[in-house]
Amino acid sequence: MDINEISNTAIKMAIEYAPKVLMAVLTLIIGFWIIKKLMKVLDKALISNGMDLSLSKFLSSIVSAGLKVMLLLSVASMFGVDTTSFIAILGGLMIGVGMALNGSLGQIASGVMLMIFKPFKVGDLVDIGGGNIGSVNAINAFNTELATLDNKKIFVSNSNVTGNTITNISGQGTVGVELTFGIGYGDNIDKAREVILKVGKDCPYILDTPAQGVVVANLGDSSVDLATRPFCKSEHYWDVKFYMTEHVKKAFDAQGIGIPYPTMDLNVKQS
Question: Does domain 174-255 bear CATH number 3.30.70.100?
């Protein structure tokens, strides 16, 4: 086959397949755009009908995956692929893949359990497994998305969520902020208690009910530990924690109350 025949063959193939390729590309672009718009409409419709935000996002992720598979099958049919047999083959493959990806199916099952039992919802501040702390952004088919205080995203697989201890910090609407302040053994406990309560009263986020209290929690090696648990709305948890930590330290300094730190006395003996 000479160069002319090769060129003619290439030209014929380009003329034959170029429209199909162009149409397939356009179909994909327009299809994904339509799916994106449909998902927004579906989300609004589910939420407007009173469906829980967590459940609506979970269902949307599944519907979106199904529509994308249908779009890819439609594009395949443009190239003469027998989609009927392809679907049958795909079904067989899905069974095999499902057996191979048993863990992935477990993730979906765990996601369904989260939807049914609802240990938390989108927007709640949670602690998963004693370390993954953040606000719930979404509960997807395979994972749960958290947003940390420093605006990082954490993706925790649903099986790890259901298999770990879940602490819903904001699940009750109000939350107590556990705080401990150490003072020296020579400092006045009652005076330190008054200072902590005064700072709590000045904090704009702390609720009046239940009333804040201060107790002696521990007699440490170098400090008397005073514990307090002011209550606030769940969304103000970090605001209260940071406010109290900073302003109690400043108030202690102003009142001459020391916050001790470990020290060591070194005795040198000369021979």
Answer: yes
